[in-house]
Amino acid sequence: MRFVFFTDIHLLENKDSIIGFEKCLDRMLAFGPQLLINGGDLGVTPQAVNTYHEMIKGLDIPVYQVNGNHEICNGFLTPERAGQFSRSFDHDGVHFVIFDTVRFFTPTDEHPQNWYFIADPQNLEWLATDLARIPKQMPIILASHCSISTSAPFRFGQELGMEFPVNEVTEATKVVNLLKPFDSVATLHGHDHENCRHRADGIQILTTAAVAGGWWRNGLESPNISGEPQGFRVIDVTCGQIESQYVMLQESQSQLASWYTQAKSMRHFINVFDASPETKVHIENIGELQPLDAFSDSAKGLSPHLYELSANHLEQIGASERINVTIDFENGQTNQLEIDCSAVLYM
Ligand SMILES: [Fe+2]
Asked: 146 C-alpha vs ligand 1 centroid, how far in Å?
């Protein structure tokens, strides 16, 4: 079966969000999904929620909603209702879980956000009961707004292990422990506005970049935090195997990778927008590149899907304006592309 996960649409912020989400709906439906899952953060105003529901009401496939932290800002999720939205359903041989982790927090000087994320005892108990009836071989998809396995707080200099976390989920390892006995599990997340695919105890963690990218600051040309163009994730479940692809909002951006230069350090990378640690990247006549180690100091302020060029690599590239790159994904898909080496600077 095929379905689509899209997240962080942030309607009515900055420029062209309505045009952009219309485009997104058309693009997603063109892939023939059986259902859609929205990973949360519709927008910060009640009007954003109304606009969203107006825009999806004519669709003839189900659209499931995961609550994001903005659902507290926009009033959809009142403090009393937070934590009451976990649910599950089976569709075409796949078990789907919507797992609700957003909770209200009364802001303080030290914690100005009005939300935090937790897998609380009530929801963990519900999940354990829900999964108890699922056969070990049945593929499972769990969607929650903030990732249950993330290096983003470490990489972006935020406090780790805080008591009411805004970029992690308290007790997330208990969710992983409930899921890991199953043969084929993938979890879907947003919130970070970046792609980050990796495995945790055999589970595929598929954090997905935002439809809004950089909050629609430049309309449909608003890259995500690590340079990924705006897009969504198409997921196929075939004979128990879960595979996915990140798809750009605009066909003209349908490319897998780009050159990436970090302005403050002048470090240079190949940015493979949806790479995992198993993805191999090779520059013709120059050699293989290594991905960043997500929990090393060299990854601070950067994404793990960046592949750094050494001084030796740069010397070999010399004055070339374009390089030929081969990308081997772990599902056996091989792609060859030409990349423009002119510096696109990122902070
Ligand atoms: Fe969020």
From this structure: 7
The Å distance, Cα 201 to ligand 1 centre, comes to: 25
How far is the centre of ligand 1, averaged over its atoms, from the C-alpha of 206 (Å)? 15
- Cα 123 to the center of its chain, rounded Å: 22
Ligand 1 centroid to Cα of residue 100, in Å, is 13
Give distance in angstroms: CA of 7 to centre of ligand 1.
9
The Å distance, Cα 334 to ligand 1 centre, comes to: 33
Q: Is the pTM of this model over 0.90?
A: yes
* Ligand 1 centroid – CA 20 distance (Å): 19
Distance CA 133, CA 304 (A): 36
Measured CA to CA, the distance from residue 175 to residue 197 in angstroms comes to 18
Q: Which residues pair with 232 in a beta bridge?
A: 247
Name which of 294, 325, 290, 293 is nearest 307 in CA terms.
Answer: 290
* Three-class SS state of 40: coil
- CATH match of 2-252 with 3.60.21.10: yes
State the pLDDT at residue 112: 94
- Topology alike, domains 2-252 and 255-346: no
Residue 252 pLDDT class (50, 70, 90 cuts): confident
Q: Which residues surround ligand 1, an ion (CB under 5 A)?
A: 41, 68-69, 191
Q: What's the CA-to-centroid distance between 5 and ligand 1, angstroms?
A: 15
β-strands 280-283, 267-272 pairing: unpaired
Q: Decide if pLDDT at 44 tops 80.
A: yes
Burial (CB count within 10 angstroms: exposed 0-12, middle 13-18, buried 19+), residue 116? buried
Give distance in angstroms: CA of 167 to centre of ligand 1.
8
Residue of 118 and 158 predicted with greater confidence: 118
Q: Ligand 1 center to residue 115 CA distance, Å?
A: 10
Contact 69, 76 (CB under 8 A): no
Domain spans in the chain, listed from the N-terminal domain onward: 2-252, 255-346
- Report the alpha-carbon angle 86-91-94, nearest 5: 85
255-346 adopts what CATH topology? Immunoglobulin-like (2.60.40)
